[in-house]
Amino acid sequence: MSSSQVISQSVHTLLVPTTSGSLLIPSAVVAEVVTVSNLVPLPAGPDWCSGLAAWRNRALPVISIEVLTGKPYAPPGPRSKYVVLFPLHGCHESQFFAIQSLTEPQPNNISDTKGMVVKTPNLPIAASALNLEGVVAIIPDLEWLKETLYPAR
What we know:
153 residues
């Protein structure tokens, strides 16, 4: 290949709306998007864990992005969805978890971020941020998320 050829790489993502803003998550880490089900509370659990939802015969922890970003917990609404994420790198293969979305997440194909990168919000969860047609989307720091969810690792 000559040096004049450009290699174009795109990333398939989901734009996940939350009351704390939108998250831009690579589709490769998303196992499934499901309809909200009843949550079983975890009385002694961390405040960022909204509870457990049943998913594919397992108890799935549902994470509150709102609480992780210092805002009050937002209960699910009638159009809410759970975005089920595969276990993070270095976690046990059964450690799926979910993030609550306000509505159905929207797919995006990001191929060029030129002119889209914006100032990253001062939040521990934010690795970077992009402006997607007027919506500031936070790209989560998955390593920080893993350390927060599983501090004993």
